[in-house]
Design a protein that fits this description.
single chain; alpha+beta; 2,3-Dihydroxybiphenyl 1,2-Dioxygenase, domain 1
Length: 162
């Protein structure tokens, strides 16, 4: 993972369950984990940092009366290569799961909002995926407007007219 890899911080009430979901269902790779506190996962051009939020307050900390239980978030993250990432997520989510009640079925297919990223009129590809806690990762790819990273300006010899 390079320093320019986009990442998103996601809170979760149960870190172990979220790590299992991201790695076993969504196909992420766990790069680092501090059990009960933090996990860093990567999937292609996307890095997700999971943070446990349901910990018991420390010795001097008190939960305020305004404190609410966990609420899932909506996270926008810009990436490059949304089509390849979306296809890998789709394959992972459409993999059939064997259960005693449903037999072999794609239990997680509803967590990806579309069959492919959608082009938006403002010039970006967008897709959304939902994790087990209800957090939504809103993926945005503006690469259609970025120059090709392999493009090189013509040299002075190429610019000269014969």
């Amino acid at each position: 993972m390079s320093m320019s890899t986009p990442f998103v911080n996601v809170r979760t009430p149960c870190l172990a369950r979220a790590v299992a979901d991201y790695t076993q269902v969504l196909g992420f790779e766990c790069l680092q984990q501090v059990p009960g506190v933090y996990a860093r996962l990567v999937h292609g051009p996307l890095c997700v940092q999971l943070w446990a939020c349901g910990a018991v307050p420390g010795r001097w900390e008190r939960v305020s009366p305004q404190h609410k239980a966990f609420e899932p978030g909506h996270h926008r993250v810009e990436i490059v290569g949304i089509h390849a990432l979306h296809e890998r997520l789709r394959k992972a989510l459409l993999a059939p799961c064997r259960t005693s009640l449903a037999g072999r079925s794609a239990l997680h297919a509803h967590r990806l909002d579309a069959a492919a990223p959608e082009w938006q009129p403002w010039g970006a590809w967008e897709a959304r995926v939902q994790d087990v806690d209800g957090n939504v990762l809103h993926l945005i790819d503006r690469a259609a407007w970025l120059p090709d990273p392999n493009w090189q300006p013509p040299s002075s010899a190429q610019r000269a007219v014969p």
